[in-house]
Write a structure and sequence with these properties.
Largest interface: A-B, 48 and 48 residues
Shape of chain A: elongated
Low-confidence stretches of chain A: none
Number of helices of chain A: 8
Number of strands of chain A: 11
Strand order of the largest sheet of chain A: 1-8-3-6
Distance between the termini of chain A: 47 Å
Radius of gyration of chain A: 19 Å
Oligomer: homodimer
Number of domains of chain A: 2
CATH superfamily of the largest domain in chain A: Jelly Rolls
DNA sequence: ATATAAATGTGATATAAATCACATATTATG
DNA sequence: CATAATATGTGATTTATATCACATTTATAT
């Protein structure tokens, strides 16, 4: 589908800094595609040929680990998906899969590189973006590696509530099995933790994955105490 | 100490792309400092006021976690230290400490920003650098979170041997306690693993931390089998 | 050099979480 | 719609690893 970048209201902060002629170039080197829930946007092991910009939707970034799939992060629009795996190597080191209906712009790598070369503000914004994600990643990995399971799950739920959905009530974007490989635990253990949180009245979780945080204070405490 | 960037043989790949007048600017906005083993180069929680470039030496990047210090990565020269924590927030999210005698250049943040704005090749190289480290970090975190202790330690030793020292024999750059918080385990467990690896004749470890890998094949197997 | 502190090795024990086992529910699919 | 396939919940058991305890070695400071 042909995009209309000039009047696009979902431009990235970096793209907002492009000059009119650059926006024209972008428009000519950009393809907009819809993905439904569960569809793969790019896959580990394949060649990284385009810059991938998430215009709308929610996506999981995941890679094969020694004992199975590992979810590395969730990205919600607006966000570039996998700049590091596009620039860092010819081959993708991880995959991106739509969690909800999503809209993605595929941008020609060469055009994008040229923006970096020719537009310092654009380059700077991309650098800032990469830097902020690394900070968030380090923080998450440190917590994941030091907290035990109840703390890891509490943290994840708080992250969903505070940052992703900005609400105490939301639909779990991942299955229990996926949550398990996000927090690096067995699905049985995660399932038990949810039962326990429900039993204690800290959360309410319906059969159709609607989750409500009833005692955020308790979740906070569980999250910090590991 | 006044640096001599023009004739410096340890320039970063990015700095190699600077034009003569930019090199002059760099030289005027750069201070070279030596750190001895154990000295802090920058500290979590303090303001990030300079770009930090490791000209020579070996450094650990570490942050406070819920149950104690966590080592995130080792950086050997040449490398920028903590670009993400310098750009991503005003305050450092992690610390850098010299593991060996090290030489560091502190570069004015404004000068560095201007290079990004004005020199696309420089900006591109910085982006590539950030991207490559994220790939390596993701890989390491996935492995650390899925492998169990013997595999994590085997992987770390192989990484030391293959990438850091490029030799089967080297001096352990970290104490047992530090290794433990690198691989997210207790120091007792790590100590036991080393005893076991020695007992099996896979490594030899002397009292003064000189380590020799005797059976790389076995380490490889332990590393892959988790 | 001696005292004091910090790091290390190793056994015994406790514990978090994985695994196994199986019932039940939910979702795809011919 | 029926049947298979997949995901989930929960008890019983096992296991990896943390914790505790303490001896010993190594580093640091006075």
């Amino acid at each position: 589908m042909k995009p209309d970048c000039k009047f696009c209201k979902m431009k990235s902060p970096a793209a907002e800094l492009l000059k009119p002629d650059e926006i024209d170039t972008l428009e000519q080197n950009c393809a907009q595609v819809k993905f439904s829930k569960g569809e793969t946007i790019f896959r580990e092991g394949t060649f990284a040929t385009n810059i991938v910009y998430l215009r709308a939707g929610l996506v999981k970034i995941h890679m094969k680990g020694p004992i199975g799939e590992k979810i590395l992060r969730l990205n919600k629009a607006p966000a570039y998906l996998g700049l590091p795996t596009t620039f860092g190597d010819r081959v993708n080191h991880y995959s991106a899969t739509a969690i909800t209906e999503s809209e993605v712009c595929f941008i020609s790598l060469d055009a994008f590189k040229n923006f970096i070369y020719s537009n310092g503000n654009f380059a700077y914004e991309i650098i800032m973006d990469l830097c902020r994600s690394e900070l968030a990643d380090f923080q998450r990995f440190t917590n994941l590696s030091q907290k035990q399971l109840p703390g890891r799950i509490a943290e994840l739920l708080l992250c969903f509530s505070n940052h992703l959905f900005k609400s105490n009530a939301f639909e779990l974007p991942l299955s229990i099995t996926e949550l398990a490989n996000f927090v690096s635990a067995s699905r049985e253990s995660v399932s038990r933790q949810f039962s326990e949180l429900s039993r204690l009245g800290i959360i309410e979780l319906t059969h159709d994955k609607k989750l409500t945080i009833l005692r955020k204070d308790m979740l906070d405490k569980i999250s910090t105490n590991g």
